[in-house]
């Protein structure tokens, strides 16, 4: 009976974590290229207990009693978001699978689904948050227009009207992208579970294509998240009632009197 108190408490903690994932999804519903989070639950260890009243002729034996559930992971779901048209040449979306490699100031490598770009003082093509694309692409100082082809080729139209190809955007693929570690600002870091990045040309070997003057919307669906919120709320309420019922039963036992 005491176990029921802890099982209910573990269930409430797990459902609260699931609700927090739903809340974060809804908060980022309008964040470009945001990928929804999905809570994953596991059952806790099982405890072997003796069977209380074995039937006549049946061995005493034992039963396995579960001890609740826990949040095992919060995974990212990398389904495609809707492409929304933009008026800026520096807005580039990935239509399909893949990530662009990003150089972090501390020397580590991160990955992004692109979005709004900018040009640094040195002419390097960067994310709006300031991280440089890798391999690096440098634009001429007299660039008047940026041109990004769907196959990743990047060209610059200069002041004299000529067009120069200045580099190519490559995309990374992962064996298990849901295991990438989110770092904020739409950036992800490779982990042992995700596997190493496999760089390649845009549009080849399952990689997506690029769409200039588009931004990828989040893949959060409000209706789905509201359903998940209600399910988490109902599960939380049910676990709280388990605690209440176990407490009432314990109270009955404590108040027993001998006749």
Q: What report would you give on this structure?
A:
The protein has 259 residues and is an alpha+beta fold. Helix content is 23%, strand content 36%. It contains 2 helices and 20 strands. The protein has helices at residues 2-27, 222-254, and strands at 37-43, 46-50, 62-66, 69-76, 83-85, 91-95, 100-103, 109-112, 114-119, 125-127, 132-134, 143-148, 153-158, 163-168, 170-173, 181-184, 187-189, 198-201, 209-212, 214-216. The strands form 7 sheets. The protein has a 5-stranded antiparallel beta sheet, with no helix packed on it. Helix 1 runs antiparallel to helix 2. The protein is elongated. The mean pLDDT is 90.
Secondary-structure map:
Blueprint: H1 2-27, E1 37-43, E2 46-50, E3 62-66, E4 69-76, E5 83-85, E6 91-95, E7 100-103, E8 109-112, E9 114-119, E10 125-127, E11 132-134, E12 143-148, E13 153-158, E14 163-168, E15 170-173, E16 181-184, E17 187-189, E18 198-201, E19 209-212, E20 214-216, H2 222-254
Antiparallel strand pairs: 1-4, 2-3, 5-20, 6-9, 6-19, 7-8, 7-11, 8-17, 9-10, 12-13, 13-14, 15-18, 16-17
Helix pairs in contact: 1-2
């Amino acid at each position: 009976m005491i176990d029921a108190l802890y099982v209910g408490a573990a269930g409430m903690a797990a459902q609260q974590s699931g609700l927090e994932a739903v809340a974060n999804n809804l908060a980022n519903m309008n964040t470009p290229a945001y990928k929804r989070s999905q809570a994953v639950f596991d059952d806790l260890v099982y405890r072997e207990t003796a069977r209380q009243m074995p039937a006549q002729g049946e061995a005493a034996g034992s039963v396995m009693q579960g001890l609740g559930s826990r949040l095992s992971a919060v995974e990212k779901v990398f389904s495609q978001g809707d492409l929304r048209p933009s008026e800026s040449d520096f807005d580039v979306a990935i239509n399909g699978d893949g990530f662009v490699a990003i150089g972090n100031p501390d020397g580590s490598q991160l990955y992004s689904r692109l979005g709004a770009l900018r040009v640094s003082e040195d002419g390097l093509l960067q994310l709006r948050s300031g991280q440089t694309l890798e391999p690096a692409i440098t634009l001429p100082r007299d660039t008047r227009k940026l041109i990004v082809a769907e196959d990743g080729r990047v060209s610059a139209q200069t002041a004299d009207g000529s067009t120069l190809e200045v580099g190519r955007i490559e995309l990374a693929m992962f064996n298990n992208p849901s295991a990438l570690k989110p770092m904020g600002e739409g950036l992800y870091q490779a982990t042992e579970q995700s596997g190493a990045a496999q760089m390649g040309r845009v549009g080849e070997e399952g990689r997506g294509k690029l769409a200039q003057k588009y931004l990828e919307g989040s893949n959060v669906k409000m209706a789905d998240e509201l359903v998940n919120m209600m399910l988490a709320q109902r599960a939380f309420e049910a676990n709280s009632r388990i605690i209440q019922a176990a407490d009432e039963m314990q109270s009955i036992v404590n108040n027993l009197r001998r006749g």
